[in-house]
UniProtKB/TrEMBL annotation:
Highest classification ranks of the organism: Bacteria, Bacillati, Mycoplasmatota, Mollicutes, Candidatus Izemoplasmatales
Gene3D superfamilies: P-loop containing nucleotide triphosphate hydrolases
Gene Ontology MF term list: GTP binding; GTPase activity
One Pfam match: YqeH-like_C
Origin: domain of life: Bacteria
Coiled coil (residue ranges): none
Protein name per UniProt: Ribosome biogenesis GTPase YqeH
Domain CP-type G, chain residue ranges per copy: 63-227
Gene that encodes it: yqeH
Length: 373
């Protein structure tokens, strides 16, 4: 094969010299396969054996992607994880979308309780975008897992793109590749998934383009890494326990002052004061597999020391040495509902006024925002 070829699963440049590098394929297979059949060894093993590989897109490679998008009049389709909006809406995306037409897609809507109205979520998204200084052409909520609302997504893409190419962008693990696969199967005749999907961050390592029906191209792009999310610090086993796979069932805790909630051994919420009432209703939105434990605040430190990896898990073993914890103090005195978000893990909802401390590893983002639900 004389000209450069690229893996159809992750976008890596095909090579047959170094098994430890992205894009490796044996010379024998390289001779046998046509360019549209090429899948690198890494993608093959991810798809067939669910293996993980610690590759990351280099800064130089990612800058090349940014430069290509910057220099082209294209439509940007920005994907966010609606369950982890703060963690998936990373600042680097502003560089990609600056002075570009873009559509916002809130993925993983299937994780939210079914009684939540999409109209309410879309209104909330508009407020969040306005607060961050973004102008968006339109927005839509989808479930890439189940294919919900893809007709509306495609309608918006064709409405706004004209004859331009389309770039699917977003942070790691927001579901970009799954969205591309749904589009390929539903609208472009693919019989099965083409782009490689994985729970591991940065499965896509280069640009992967596919022709739309009108001749323009839709591109999957490497995920922007947000190191403030838990996924970068947990083993695969622990991450699977924290990552919601289906609709999250909210739990309601009535907490007094000086009571604490542990979210596995990954985060903690202390109630300092309800300001105007003795009891605070705390609604939790986390993976249904994550153990949530209530205790008195004066016992919390000892409990964490004695029960980490057992009652308070994940993490599941001492080999997962999480960075040191810090607390974030929130004191809000109005009467609105707020979420306290542990980036990449979940969130709790409380009605102000309240005074709380939220603990997490110092590398993990902890935010407060107007309640999404």
């Amino acid at each position: 094969m004389s000209q450069d070829a690229y893996c159809n699963g992750c976008g890596s440049k095909i090579q047959s010299t170094d098994k430890t590098k992205p894009g490796f394929i044996s010379e024998d297979l390289l001779k046998e396969k046509s360019s549209d059949e090429l899948i690198c060894q890494r993608c093959f093993r991810i798809k067939n054996y669910s293996e993980t590989f610690p590759y990351e897109v280099s800064n130089q490679d990612f800058l090349q992607v940014i430069d290509k998008i910057r220099n082209e009049d294209a439509l940007i389709v920005k994907i966010v994880d609606i369950f982890d909006f703060s963690g998936s809406f990373v600042p680097a995306i502003k560089t990609l979308t600056e002075k570009k037409d873009f559509i916002l897609v809130g993925n993983k809507v299937d994780l939210l309780p079914k009684n939540v109205k999409h109209k309410k979520i879309l209104s909330w998204l508009k407020i969040m975008l306005r607060n961050q200084g973004f102008d968006v052409l339109d927005s839509v909520l989808v479930s890439a897992k189940y294919g919900d609302n893809f007709d509306e997504l495609m309608r918006l893409i064709y409405k706004y793109k004209g004859n331009r190419n389309v770039y699917i962008v977003g942070s790691s693990n927001v579901g970009k590749s799954k969205i591309i696969n749904q589009i390929l199967k539903r609208y472009l005749g693919a019989a099965s998934d083409i782009v490689t999907e994985s729970l591991s961050p940065q499965t896509t390592l280069g640009l992967i383009g596919f022709n739309l029906l009108d001749g323009s191209i839709i591109y999957d792009t490497p995920g922007v890494v947000n190191k403030h999310q838990y996924m970068h610090y947990l083993s695969r086993q622990s991450y699977k326990a924290t990552y919601p796979q289906k609709e999250v069932k909210p739990l309601v805790f009535q907490l007094n002052e000086e009571q604490t909630l542990f979210f596995g051994g990954l985060a903690r919420l202390d109630i300092i004061s309800g300001e105007t009432c003795d009891i605070i209703n705390v609604v939790t939105y986390f993976s249904n597999r994550l153990n949530i434990h209530r205790t008195k605040t004066d016992r919390a430190n000892k409990l964490y020391k004695d029960k980490l990896y057992s009652l308070l898990s994940p993490p599941v073993s001492s080999e997962e040495e999480l960075p040191r914890w810090v607390f974030h103090e929130f004191r809000i005195r109005d009467n609105q509902k707020y979420d306290i978000v542990f980036s990449g893990l979940g969130f709790v909802t409380l009605r102000a006024p309240f005074h709380v401390k939220a603990y997490a590893p110092f590398v993990v983002g902890v935010y407060t925002r107007l309640a999404i639900i």
